[in-house]
Design a protein that fits this description.
The complex is a heterotrimer. By secondary structure, chain B is an alpha+beta fold. Chain B has 20 helices and 21 strands. Chain B is globular and about 75 Å long. In chain C, helix 6 crosses helix 8. The chains are: A mainly alpha, B alpha+beta, C mainly alpha.
């Protein structure tokens, strides 16, 4: 296989694709902000810095909350939390999805039937409601828990998609060759099928990432997020509860939601861009 | 497409016509309240303490007396008078000329019937029957309560808390209905009648045949009272600022700054602390765990907490720091100033460090925190319910101030369920607690601090969550209960002893007084209760149990703003 | 056909039993119990609390062994008895839920249907020309990436606080009682617009983007090129593409139901709109097991029914499924 040429070709199209450029750029901006941001501020998210209800100024770039906490500090720490949940939650969802999707797609038959049924069941249950119930009854909630829960309910999408792809791939010649040569199924999956699906898995992961961020924001907004840290959803929750709407404290609730919209939107756009790169058919209209 | 346009037009027509046909209740006759009802109205049963619609006791059902905590006086209400004719007999004279809203007269039979319900089924006042032996009807308007052992302090509490029920309507109910029925279309003796309700509000209408109009020359001003269901704090804030809610009893942060914002807002005090004090916020300390079982450690802990910071930064001065005994301002006269001077604790970090060092708590490993005497680490958790933001901020301040003297206390915010469970089961380290409310007697406070049935705490929620065990104190509390309520000297003597024990052993640490949150809008009604007005010093609170602590009289003072 | 629906039905039944069991299980294995909370709220005298505690435990059937509670639960379910609410004692749960359902229907049905139709239409437009694509696509991406509650907050703030032309909380004016009058209906609609808009906009974005992508995919398929080569008018090709693209959008609707429920929940919270979503939040905050179970059950049943309806629709719309009903559903 002429690998190097293909790689360069891929890179070329990636850089040419406007959607990809814009999407990645936006996500990178926020990633940098999440990494560097906490170093720019000398406060902790819940420190008292000023009497409160201060609009943005040169000292407090995003103003302060009703309790006198610095919104910018909360924002950058919240960004971190958001990314972590996206990474772990999205990652877990993708992993489980890969596991189930591959096995179902490769094995077929009764295994596929059972896994499919299982997938459909989890798909139909409104996951947020179950998450709510679980989260509501935990005394103390941490970030890890939230990510894991989200991952546990996000995988059906990934599983379905991966299963379909696996189906179409497994009947290809190189897989038959591998099977004939006596390779174990797991090895076949890892060595032959997965590499050809890498691009697809990347797409799936991006969507899972975005989805996890939105789910986490929703959970946090309802007040069932982690009890001991800050996140963008929690900022919105607090803003609404403490009358930011009524007191016109737009600097408290606009940034968090805007950031989530921007990040998730950028992820979606990146996803489409990548799809166009990997699927020449979609490249030009 | 055409259909869609037609629909749109119809919608717009609805909108405008809707706005044109507006109100149902006349604004100048209607008082809008909020802050007590956190869920849709579901019952009007005055025996379902904690669950009934706002004003069920107070506006519809009334009590024998009203109690005024600010003057420490009882006002005869449904009762004409009451007195102890001997050490264990209380003679009650029921007021004549009182009618139920269905026209039937209220007599001693109704009162006797009501109290005896407590004997038949589990009600809030059922425990009365463990020391009340019988009620005898002397005549149509006189009753004799005969006690096995008279607990004078507690008895007074029943006098202004038990709602009187009409026998002719309740006698036929089965006991399950009595204790837990919804009691729709309630019939009471009070100044208001049931009018209507829906998901978002409860509407009461003025009772023009209320007995007090003739007998006491009192008249309530609003023709309708609409109590709005709380959806959220910020919603309430918006309603009050816009003048759509006249009286709000939610905790609304930032009210102190809004007072000068041109919103026609009014609070009881025009300056800090803005609100009256309703209950004490205590630091529950779990004496069953190390090192909290060491009184020296508790002392150091108490000295290290910067309450002033909590009051000013967290609450914007809407609350006051508690005095060292924790007694509410209305009980100032019971505070033994000598004991306080000798043993009282205030914020003094240097002293805290001193006490720690003297008691043998040293920082052995250099992490900035002291360790136990046996070198094991001290890592304490202080809990408050998640979402109670003012408390959440408070324990952060506490954590920071104890850190400054070397005690490692970490704030934690479990869900309310988990918080309550930890307190009841005694699995917590430190917790904030404000269970004990203002009442007619400081006995209720000492009963809470020194609640003696330690094994029953998980079900009775009586207090003493730290499980302090001191029989002397328990006996003193019982002794206090038996003192006559006008025996000021006797009460002060016992209370002084209790304060000495409390301040020496520090089983629980008082922090600040939570307020009777009350924000009033003068846009539609004026002449609200105020500290400046002696004749109108009534409580501006719609919470359960407050109507009969003179909030009902607030309604007689209100004046509608004359329409422009 | 029978096999197809039979299999679907089996899945739905399994789902139902599993979901119900989860829902019933979880609250019971968590610390604390609702009676404690009831008592703490009531501020009872300690000595009386003991008596009342045992009374309530019995009244709520919490004093029997766990497995018996589970069986009692299924038994009651088949009698349509969802239990008595703890938070709004003594109202039956079913009554409380029924009061909230009309608001959800009022909010969700128009939002889902209108956004689906409009989104698909606009998505198809976007696939027509590059100019349209460059306007509609970015808008669609932004909308679908917007968290429901944030859009709700922003709309509420803009129209409710800044412009002051629409109310931003409640289902109807506080001064009114529900009645069959123009005034009430007007107030109802006034309060409905913002929650509807925030649900509609986000969903619209999603469908538009989905449809656009689907159509482009279809336009790139072999049959499209073939038709083009044959000289068929673009409009005809687009029509075929549309019909093929709409199919995954129908199944997409079924898949999105869970997300839509979540969106409705937060929207109701932002606007204090008294639907089931809002009830769930209250039930959780007040640790009302029975109300929570009831709401959850209701949602599950609703979602399952909707899924079934969509399955039937799909079969009606896609001739291929009618001919060869084989394989996985």
């Amino acid at each position: 296989m002429p690998q190097p040429k293909k790689k360069n070709e891929m890179l070329y199209f990636m850089l040419r694709n406007a959607k990809l450029r814009i999407g990645v750029a936006i996500v990178l901006i926020f990633v940098v902000l999440a990494l560097v941001g906490p170093l720019l501020t000398k406060y902790q998210p819940r420190d008292y810095v000023a009497p409160g209800v201060e609009p943005p100024s040169s000292e407090f770039w995003f103003g302060t909350t009703s309790f006198g906490e610095d919104v910018f500090t909360q924002f950058v720490y919240g960004l971190r939390a958001t990314f972590i949940v996206g990474l772990i939650g999205g990652g877990l969802g993708t992993l489980i999805g890969i596991l189930i999707g591959f096995i179902a797609g490769y094995r077929g038959g009764i295994v596929d039937e059972i896994l499919n049924m299982f997938t459909n069941i989890v798909l139909v249950i409104p996951s947020l409601v179950v998450l709510l119930i679980i989260a509501a009854y935990l005394e103390v909630r941490g970030f890890l828990f939230e990510s894991i829960f989200i991952g546990f309910f996000a995988w059906p999408w990934a599983a379905r998609a991966i299963r379909a792809q696996t189906f179409s791939l497994r009947s290809r010649e190189f897989v038959d060759l591998a099977r004939l040569s006596g390779m174990k199924p797991l090895k076949i999956i890892i060595k032959e099928i997965a590499p050809n699906m890498m691009s697809y898995l990347l797409l799936v992961y991006i969507l899972q990432f975005g989805g996890a961020i939105l789910t986490a924001a929703t959970l946090d907004f309802i007040g069932l997020g982690p009890t001991n840290s800050v996140s963008l959803g929690l900022m919105m929750n607090n803003a609404v509860i403490y009358g930011a709407l009524i007191l016109g404290m737009w600097w408290w609730f606009i940034p968090p939601g805007l950031a989530i919209t921007a990040i998730v939107g950028a992820l979606y756009v990146t996803n489409v861009g990548l799809d166009e790169v990997f699927n020449p058919k979609l490249r030009e209209m | 497409m055409f259909k869609k346009i037609a629909l749109l037009v119809l919608l717009i027509v609805f909108l405008f016509s809707g706005m044109a046909f507006g109100q149902v209740l006349e604004r100048s006759e209607t008082l809008y309240t909020g802050g007590k009802q956190w869920g849709p109205v579901s019952n009007w049963n005055p025996l379902m303490t904690g669950n009934y619609a706002t004003g069920t006791i107070g506006l519809v059902y009334e009590t024998l007396f009203l109690y005024d905590p600010l003057t420490d006086k009882f006002m005869p209400w449904l009762a004409e008078s009451g007195q102890w004719t001997d050490a264990s007999t209380y003679e009650l004279k029921v007021r004549q000329g009182v009618n139920w809203s269905d026209g039937k007269p209220l007599t001693a039979d109704d009162v006797k019937f009501t109290f005896e319900l407590g004997q038949k089924t589990a009600l809030n006042f059922s425990s009365l029957w463990s020391w009340l032996s019988s009620i005898t009807k002397v005549d149509d308007y006189t009753l004799d309560f005969k006690f096995k052992s008279a607990l004078y302090q507690e008895w007074d509490n029943y006098l202004y808390n038990v709602p009187m029920l009409p026998q002719h309507l309740w006698a036929s109910k089965d006991l399950k209905d009595v204790a837990t029925g919804a009691n729709e279309k309630p019939v009471g003796s009070g100044p208001y009648l049931y009018f209507a309700y829906d998901q978002t509000k409860m509407v009461w209408a003025k009772n023009d045949n209320w007995w007090a109009i003739k007998v006491l020359s009192l008249s309530v001003a609003p023709k309708y009272i609409v109590d709005l269901v709380n959806t959220s704090n910020e919603n309430s804030l918006g309603l009050v600022l816009q003048g759509q809610e006249d009286l709000n009893n939610n905790y609304l942060p930032g009210i102190s700054t809004l007072l000068t914002g041109g919103y026609a807002l009014h609070t009881y005090y025009p300056v800090a602390p803005y609100h009256l004090a309703a209950n004490t916020a205590w630091l529950d300390v779990n004496l069953q765990k190390k090192p909290m079982d060491d009184v020296a450690f508790r002392k150091a802990l108490a000295y290290s907490i910067n309450v002033a910071d909590i009051v000013s930064r967290d609450y914007g001065n809407m609350v006051q720091a508690a005095n060292p005994t924790g007694l509410l301002p209305v009980w100032d006269k019971y505070v033994d100033q000598n004991v306080v001077k000798k043993l009282g604790i205030s914020y003094d970090p240097a002293k805290a460090k001193q006490i720690l060092a003297a008691a043998g708590y040293k920082d052995v490993n250099g992490d900035g925190f002291v360790e136990n005497k046996d070198k094991s680490l001290i890592t304490l958790k202080i809990i408050v319910p998640n979402g109670w933001s003012d408390w959440m901020a408070a324990i952060q301040i506490i954590s920071n101030s104890t850190k400054a003297v070397g005690i490692n206390v970490q704030p934690d915010y479990p869900d309310f369920n988990g918080y309550l469970d930890a307190r009841l089961k005694g699995t917590f380290d430190l917790a904030i607690d404000n269970q004990a409310q203002v009442s007619n007697t400081p006995w209720s406070y000492y009963h809470f601090i020194f609640y003696d049935k330690l094994a029953d705490i998980p079900t009775t929620q009586g207090g003493n969550y730290g499980r302090y065990n001191n029989q002397t104190a328990f006996d003193l509390v019982t002794q206090l209960d038996k003192l006559a309520t006008n025996d000021l000297q006797g009460m002060k003597a016992v209370i002084s002893k209790l304060q000495t024990i409390q301040l020496t052993d520090l089983p629980i640490i008082p922090l600040w007084y939570n307020g009777m949150w009350a924000q009033m809008s003068s846009a539609n009604w004026t002449n609200w209760p105020s500290s400046a007005d002696k004749d109108n010093h009534y409580l501006p609170v719609t919470w359960n149990g407050y109507w009969n602590m003179t909030s009902i009289l607030m309604l007689t003072q209100l004046k509608p703003v004359v329409a422009k | 056909m029978r096999r197809y629906f039979g299999r679907k039905l089996l899945i739905y039944i399994f789902t139902f039993v599993l979901a119900v069991t989860i829902d019933w299980l979880i609250p019971r294995f968590m610390p604390g119990n609702p009676i404690q909370i009831l008592i703490s709220r009531a501020g009872l005298k300690a000595e009386s609390a003991n008596l009342i505690y045992s009374y309530y435990m019995q009244a709520f059937g919490l004093n029997v062994p766990i497995w018996q509670q589970y069986l009692n639960f299924w038994n009651a379910l088949f009698h349509g008895d969802f239990g008595i609410s703890i938070w709004l004692f003594p109202q039956p749960v079913i009554q409380i839920i029924m009061r909230a359902v009309p608001f959800d229907v009022l909010l969700l049905l128009p939002a889902i249907l209108v956004s689906w139709f409009a989104g698909n239409k606009f998505g198809a437009y976007a696939a027509r020309s590059k100019w349209l694509d460059n306007t509609i696509s970015p808008l669609g991406y932004i909308l679908t990436a917007t968290p429901y509650m944030w859009l709700g907050i922003v709309l509420g703030w803009l129209f409710g606080i800044i412009l002051r032309i629409l109310p931003f909380s409640g289902a109807y004016s506080y001064a009114m009682m529900p009645s069959l009058s123009w005034a009430f209906v007007g107030s109802l609609l006034e309060h409905w617009i913002l929650p509807f808009a925030s649900l509609f906009l986000v969903m619209f974005g999603g469908w538009a983007i989905g449809m656009r992508n689907m159509i482009i995919y279809e336009l790139e398929a072999d049959y499209s090129h073939y038709l083009e080569a044959l000289g068929a008018p673009r409009k005809l090709i687009r029509q075929y593409a549309f019909r093929n693209a709409i199919l995954p959008q129908i199944t997409g609707l079924a898949l999105q139901l869970g997300v839509i429920v979540a969106g409705a929940l937060v929207t109701e919270i932002v606007f204090s709109y008294p639907g089931i979503g809002y009830l769930i939040l209250q039930a959780i905050q007040n640790h009302d097991y029975f109300l929570l179970q009831g709401c959850f059950l209701f949602i599950i049943i609703g979602v399952l029914f909707a899924n079934f309806a969509i399955d039937i629709t799909y079969v009606l719309v896609d001739p291929r499924t009618r001919i060869g009903m084989q394989g996985e559903g």
